[in-house]
Amino acid sequence: MSVSLHVVWDDAFLAYDFGPFHPMAPVRVDLTVRLARELGVLARPGVEVSDAPLADDALLERVHDPAYVAAVRAAGADPRGCDGSWGLGTDDNPAFAGMHEASAHVAGATAQCAERVWRGEARHAVNVAGGLHHAGRAAASGFCVYNDPAVGIARLLELGAERVAYVDVDVHHGDGVQDIFWDDPRVLTVSVHESGRALFPGTGWPYETGGPGAEGSAANLALPAGTGDGAWLRAFHAVVPHLLRAFAPQVLVTQHGCDSHFLDPLAHLALSVDAQRASYAALHDLAHELCGGRWVALGGGGYEVVDVVPRAWTHLLAEAAGHPLDPATPVPAGWREHVVASLGRQPPARMTDGNDGAYVPWSRGYDPADPVDQAVLATRSAVFPLHGLDPLLEE
């Protein structure tokens, strides 16, 4: 296979813009691609970059109500006419000119990634502008208009996939994807997120395990606020690999919201870029172990647009390209100068936060007084038996 990584990048992504004071600033994906280019990630052998196609209505309507697609198109044509119906025109999802086209480019890009991977035209594919996991069948939600992960998964099923695993490590629960495939046993959704006790969308509890006939198709690991690198990685490895191995997916779709970082302004976990990087490597390995390497990776949330998002997703791109970056790599001077000139901010000097990504594995024992261990056991107890696994299984 000559193409090891298919990357979709298009300046059309920058039109997905809710306005100058909204957290979902398009500059975050622009800075990511600029950084990846300056570090040579996108020039590696076997890496190809293509434009984003526009998803047509037939593709969008595989997961969205046709009336909702029509409402999004109308909102983009007349943003001032929105009254909050369909979740459009709210503080979280302000209407903007060209909303349908901008959102359809993101969805089309993820569908293209899915197609290239499933057909064997690329081993891995990445859309850093994707991962808009909160949109529902008939409503915008949480900065998400069209649910591009669900569109990509639906396209995989249409092409013949019988088992698709979706792993979401965004700090917020991947509620939209879970809801869309709630009754579909062909799709396993696994979400590792901050507990909904104090964070949008307030869902993603261990007892949410899938609908009738699809029991065990959803798994939720809801972690307490303040969870840091070692505890998060311990929890991830205690749940995610076991479920994926039991499900035996043919293709892995992953969402890599980096708003779990300790600097993110909208959430309360405390991960470093280094722990996030470690999760990318783990999911990459699982794609090769279980799916013949078939891996579609998406962006997601992330609202510290200089210090976190560009470094995190450049690591994701480098991992998917098969040439991980040394965490100690200096951030290129040209990129740093661009940030200072365009945003007036001092960017980080290196591609690391100085952590090592170490963790104590679950096999070392369960601590009943530890709230993270309590969360892990709750998830394992709720969903492991539905896959024939023992909740007390050691690694």
UniProtKB/TrEMBL annotation:
The lineage of its organism: Bacteria, Bacillati, Actinomycetota, Actinomycetes, Motilibacterales. Residues 22-318 form the Histone deacetylase domain. One of its GO terms (biological process) is acetoin catabolic process. Signal peptide: none annotated. One of its GO terms (molecular function) is histone deacetylase activity. The keyword NADP does not apply. Pfam families: Hist_deacetyl (PF00850). InterPro entries: AcuC, HDACs, His_deacetylse_dom, His_deacetylse_dom_sf, Ureohydrolase_dom_sf. PANTHER family: HISTONE DEACETYLASE HDAC1, HISTONE DEACETYLASE HDAC1-RELATED. Belongs to the histone deacetylase family. Keywords: Acetoin catabolism. Pathway: Ketone degradation; acetoin degradation. CDD domains: HDAC_AcuC_like (cd09994). This is Acetoin utilization protein AcuC.
